[in-house]
Design a protein that fits this description.
By secondary structure, the chain is an alpha/beta fold. Helices cover 19% and strands 34% of the residues. The longest helix is centred in the middle third of the chain and has 14 residues. The radius of gyration is 15 Å and the shape is globular.
Length: 131
């Protein structure tokens, strides 16, 4: 039976990416499948794999079709998390594709991979945390 695995992010510096993503999210690096070109990040509570980091020499896409969405439950939490992530090494991205009154902020990780911080209270579905 085919199953969906984990999202994989291409990075140029595995240790830097591990440091960023484990500080950004409640994740820990695990030794499973670990190599010079791969690290698996798992949920800190032990509930499973969350993210793969793959050494890549290709440049990040400026407008990737596939990206990570990180969820917050309020505008205040979103603003605080954006500040925290920038303090960890993310950067704000000039994004000309924002809709009017967006519920998300576009950032890039230290390897310039674009991701979004979404305020679920303002999401088009009517808001509130995902079930």
């Amino acid at each position: 039976m085919l199953r969906l695995g984990i999202p994989v992010v291409g990075v140029t510096d595995i240790p830097r990416a591990v440091a960023f993503w484990t500080a950004a999210l409640p994740l820990v690096a695990v030794e499973e499948w670990s190599s010079e070109t791969w690290r698996t990040l798992a949920y800190a509570d032990g509930s499973g794999h969350a993210l793969g980091l793959l050494r890549s020499d290709s440049p990040p896409e400026p407008r990737p079709r596939l990206h990570l969405d990180l969820f917050t439950d309020s505008t205040q939490e979103q603003q605080a998390e954006v500040r925290r992530l920038i303090g960890l090494g993310a950067r704000a991205v000039e994004w000309d594709l924002y809709p009017p009154d967006p519920d998300f902020v576009v950032l890039a990780d230290p390897d310039d991979n674009v991701f979004r911080v979404v305020d679920l209270s303002r999401a088009p579905s009517g808001g509130g945390p995902a079930a």
